[in-house]
Amino acid sequence: MAMQQFDNQISVTQINPAEHYSPAPLKKTSSLNHENVASDAKIVLATINAKYIHASLGLRYLYANLKELQSCCEIKEFVIQTRAIDIVEQILEAKPDIVGFGVYIWNIIETTNVVSLLKVVAPEIKIVLGGPEVSYEAEQQDIVASADFVLTGAADISFYQLCKDIINKTEPEQKILKSTPVELKDLELPYQYYSDEDLKNRLLYVEASRGCPFKCEFCLSSLDTASNPFELELFLDQMDILYQRGARNFKFIDRTFNLNIATTMQIMQFFLDRMTDDLFLHFEVVPDHLPRKLKELLTLFPDGSLQFEVGIQTFNPEVQTNISRKQNNPKSKENLIWLKDNTSAHIHADLIFGLPGETFETFRESFNELYQCRPHEIQLGILKRLKGSPIIRHTETFDLRFNPLPPFNILSTDRVDFATMQLINRFARYWDMIGNSGRFKHSLAHILSDNPFDEFMALTNWLFEKTGQTHQINLKRLYELVSQAVEALFPEKHALIISIIELDYAASKLKSHFGTLHLYAGEQTKSSGQNKLAQRQQRHKL
Fold first, then answer.
1. 43-184 adopts what CATH topology?
2. Its domain of life (predicted)?
3. Which fold has domain 203-416?
């Protein structure tokens, strides 16, 4: 990833890495050669995914570009819920000499625990870290203190070079190594290393381009200088191989998929020509760049085949200027409405709360404007401090205060106090359960009217006061709570909502009958009897 040249006035803590890393020459006395590498060393590539359905594209790129070392390498993927000690056990089963970890904001805590344990149990193993979470401000991180090497930036090639040096006993003296920029034409593509199990059960991440020309300061892609495409014919050949093997779920990680319309059209036509009932494509699109010819093509895709992730973030021009975001707001709204009315694409639109200059009131306006565009989902994100992102240049000016622990979310600004930030966090969580889940697709539109933000905020406050929780609410109980909240907050709507919410409840396919729900606040839920501890004690007496 290209480095951003910052102004001297910008307060950014950067690491001081060595010059671009190049491999040391092989020692003349070394017995290493391409034929005996596999018997001389063992490499494990590992990462901790947020969910099982996520397959690591980054690890597969590293594996694809290991050349003669590939035969002695193994990929091991884990999920967040796995205990660190169990991950260490599974890694050690491979008897590795080198372990490379992909480190991201969602797995930094868990990976730190694994690396710490691994260094205690098997200190002789060389641990190499890479990924966005350790590519910046690395020297201040606990995980780096435990590791042997850190490769910053795109490590597709530099990981191979470092492994050769470690195996050959010519490893560099520096711990933090800056990867040489990668020419995409020099990369071996990784798609053949998706297994049949991956194709059957997991999301397949693919990329037709790398980088982003936009400079939105909350995003690490703002450090890129441009969006660089892979050779299109080669990329489509790889997609065809995946398709012929049975792949039907493709998630493009391109930051700006519709930047080059000619390329976008060819990729879309490629998949349209192979359309089946189970083919599903996921793209991140620029909201104000949908020319007529692309629109015409999009109308040809059947229901259930497309999902568009549309980054709006904010409609406030002042905030957009603060974060260097260029967006034609009227055109973005027009295109969102057009997509909803004229295509079968599932539209997932993003807003971010806590941006420099944003207030409760301006965020309310952005939410209401986006709601009127009628996307299927509105993802309400809370600003996070991604290491290396230019957003931190605003820290003093806007008194940005971030959580020191992952996920490094914003806690307050000069415009938004901590209590308000917590309020929006609850709003976002309830919106995800009620608005984005699709569980209330019939009734929610009737609960909210001309002022959806304030009405849903009232619902948020009522639900939290009633339950004191934003997680682990039983679905049947959630239907009851929403009905009771409407009775308390909007009594004139309650009779209508009861009749409509029955449609939502039926769609949920819960086993209990709708007539058994407590839809009125005055109804008392029957006691569940003994609490769990008493039940446990009672079993020992039987």
1. Rossmann fold (3.40.50)
2. Bacteria
3. pyruvate-formate lyase- activating enzyme (3.80.30)
